[in-house]
Amino acid sequence: MSRTIGIVSGSLRKNSYSGNLANYIKDNAPAGFEVKILEIGDLPLYNQDYDGEEVKAYTDFRNEVKALDAVLFITPEHNRSIPAALKNALDIGSRPYGHSVWSGKPGAVISQSPGAIGGFGANHHLRQVLAFLNVLTLAQPEAYIGSSYTLFDENGALSNEDTKKFLDGFMAAFVAWIDKTA
Ligand SMILES: Cc1cc2nc3c(=O)[nH]c(=O)nc-3n(C[C@H](O)[C@H](O)[C@H](O)COP(=O)(O)O)c2cc1C
């Protein structure tokens, strides 16, 4: 039976570089895995008042995450941190208190930026949140993808061979980590 890796992208932008990387990983899913890209752009802002209420968008998202075998975050950097939409999704999945859907999931982080340092700040802010949420986050290899605007063709397909090779190796390490933590 195939297992499912969910990708949460930190970008809501059409034609986003994070989304392009997610598409490459989805189209080149590791053997035995289905890769599914989760939608976070329509989630209402997290509000603790809703913890006792049924908010369909929250419930659907929490159920989607619950069903995953692992979760991969691919994110740009916004002002040296993670985009608000990504933090919102993390917060929604973490509540109501005691019912976090993140806890115990194997996870991995890829950050990308048009700049040279590949979203290092976002990557590590995200790792801090994931540590608290008890996501079992892959430590190595780290993935800071810089100069991201140079990596894709005019249709948004990943065209840089070194980055393809790097991502293939990264996903192999992630699969080994998923097996190890199972
Ligand atoms: C509000 C905002 C803040 C940004 N802050 C940073 C930053 O701190 N560091 C960085 O390298 N790039 C920063 N950028 C540039 C983004 O990394 C760049 O737009 C990136 O390609 C977005 O990823 P996407 O293509 O997946 O949407 C920022 C962009 C926006 C819109």
Task: Tell me what the structure shows.
- This protein has one domain (3-181): Rossmann fold (3-Layer(aba) Sandwich), CATH 3.40.50.
- Helix content is 37%, strand content 16%.
- It has five helices and six strands; from the N terminus they run βαβαβαβαββα.
- Strands 1, 2, 3, 4, 5 and 6 form a six-stranded parallel sheet that branches.
- The model has no long low-confidence stretch (mean pLDDT 97).
- Flavin mononucleotide binds at residues 11, 13, 16-18, 76-80, 113-115, 119, 148.
Shape call? globular
Which ligands occur here?
flavin mononucleotide
Counted beta strands: 6
CATH class: Alpha Beta
Order of helices and strands: EHEHEHEHEEH
User: pLDDT average, as an integer?
Assistant: 97
Rg (CA only): 16 Å
Fraction of residues in β-strands: 15-25%
Low-confidence stretches: none
First and last CA, distance: 15 Å
Oligomer: single chain
Discrete helix count: 5
- Fraction in helix: 25-40%
**CATH fold naming:** Rossmann fold
Structural class by SSE content:
alpha/beta
Main sheet specs: 6 strands, parallel
The CATH fourth-level homologous superfamily: Flavodoxin domain
> What is the count of distinct domains?
1
CATH architecture: 3-Layer(aba) Sandwich
